[in-house]
Amino acid sequence: MKRLTAVAALLSLAAVAACSGGGTNGNSTGGGGGGVYTTVDINKPSLDVNAPINPWNPKGNAFWGYNAMRIAWAKNTLTDPNQFYPGIAASWDIAPDNSSITLHLQPGNKWSDGQPVTAEDVKFSIALAYTQGSTAFAVDPGAAGAASDVEVVDDKTIKITQDMKNPSVTFVRGVMDAFVVPKHVWQSVVPADFWETLKAARGDGPEAEAARGQIKALSEKVLAFAPAQDVSAGPFVLKRMNPGEALLVKNKNFYNAANVAPDQLKLLNTTGNEQIWNYLTSGKLDNAPFTAVPADVMKRIKATPGNQVIKGYSPVAVSLAFNQAKKPYDNVHVRRGLAYLINREEVTQIASPEGGTAAVTTSGIHQKAAREWLGAELDALEPYKLDPATADKEFTEAGLQKKDGKWTLADGKPWKVTIHIPAPFSDWVSAAKAITSQLTTAGVDAEVVTTADYPLYLSELNEGKYDLGFWLIALGPAPYNIFQRLYGSSNGWNILGGKVKHSAPGKDGNWMGGPETIDVEGVGAVNPGELTAQLNSVSGDEQKAVIAKLAKAANQDLPVIQLWDYVNTQFVNTNRFTGFPEDESDLLRQPSGVWIQLGLIKKKQ
């Protein structure tokens, strides 16, 4: 399965300095470049020739890092969400209290049609982000980490200020993740009085509510907007596409065009992991982003001339999540019993031997980041190692009955564990089958049911249709984002008007159905949603204390069973290009378009 990544060591200082230096003459096509670079897009594997060139459209043909640009590209380090590589912005100044960020745009950068990239483009793009409810650009009153002001300082400088009534440590990340598009192409989408409407939306009463409605009503218009042609500030411009591939050509106006090696770029369509394996074994790809690969296929990929494997940290883990609104999964002893029956090492070896490391326990955090945040407290958590005898005790405590070697519900009716999985994700399918086999051996009837595709899977999961399903967790580096996966909207907690509200199972996106408060041994009664919300504003030792409580809550209450932590396993081929990131580079957590635009990739001489 392909993932960012979700869920690193530094590149050499010399390489980073070379990448981060000022702009270059965009008219140059030097740098020893040339040739066609071929890869797949981790975010949009299935190409849609009819989709608009629009970075906000889920199927849009604006490809991150290639012809779609963010303000900056996150490094996704273990614990610090505020480290970035340059994008539209060359540099930035963050206020000590996180109250504002001032962006300094790339000097000399131009759109592919020759017009300059300006601070007005960035401000206009922020207006578009407001229509989509972006984290830093939310219109809901009291939203945590929302911007309160956007000021164009000069043509190449823009300042974004945070509303400090409800600040968030994720504010800067929310700003930097914003896409930037050309105002002169998109300006018809947003009314001329947008900023006046936004100002009114920040108030109270019917007029403010009406203003918020006007902004949100623009969302579909923004998603549907289709520029007549691609006007890009990235290293490439979309030239043409068919169902099998998208062809992009070098943007000679890009600020660092002199160091963009390929003249052309191909993004191949993929229908799943198997097709990527075929591309790799035939030597077609210069890079394949994170892809789950079984051991026998890995041998064939490695045997292909030029192919190499690069590995690094990925701030993502996969878990088996429970719908606690479904019996008997509302009983913590049932969840614990199942945890004691799953051999995570065996499951990981079967499902993701090259791309995963068996979870040391359930903490909600990738084990590398957990060691940084929790220290020795990580070792004090219950590891849930394979222990059928303890599983029997937990099931008995839950009131389940064992008849003729099979576990039944408390009333003696049959019990079957049904795990739902999206069919295209081969690693998840293999893992689910391994788990059901282990459970069946232990006397728990179990089955795997697949869903046709991932969007449908997420939709039905959100609707509460599944008893158990696979769920990505540990999406770092920001602790708030990590624990949102366990104690956010999917488990009933939402922040409205600056206050945390818990909704009943089946309401407001609550498909996990967990309790509002949990008694945690050594801590007492906690509201994990409120603790998670605190991570928006606390830092230092106070932040670590909250993380420790939440890790204990997750470990004791088991809203999910953490199965494995991803290893960012990528593939490169050095027959045509060189300069790829090394093992453990934080650049592995960005698409290879970012490597190219920073000037790392070189044409092989």
Short description:
With 605 residues, the protein is an alpha+beta fold. Helices cover 29% and strands 23% of the residues.
Overview of the molecule:
The chain contains 19 helices and 27 strands. 29% of the residues lie in helices and 23% in strands. It has 605 residues and is of the alpha+beta class. The chain folds into 2 domains: 46-230, Dipeptide-binding Protein, domain 1, CATH 3.90.76.10; 314-566, Dipeptide-binding Protein, Domain 3 (Dipeptide-binding Protein, domain 3), CATH 3.10.105. The strands form 9 sheets. Strands 13, 14, 15, 18, 19, 20 and 25 form a 7-stranded mixed sheet that branches. A 4-stranded mixed sheet has the order 1-12-11-10, with no helix packed on it. A hairpin with a 2-residue loop joins strand 21 and strand 22. The chain is globular.
Give the domain tally: 2
Average pLDDT reading: 91
SSE-based structural type? alpha+beta
CATH architecture of the largest domain: Roll
Q: Helicity level, as a percent range?
A: 25-40%
Ends apart, CA distance between termini: 33 Å
Say how many strands there are: 27
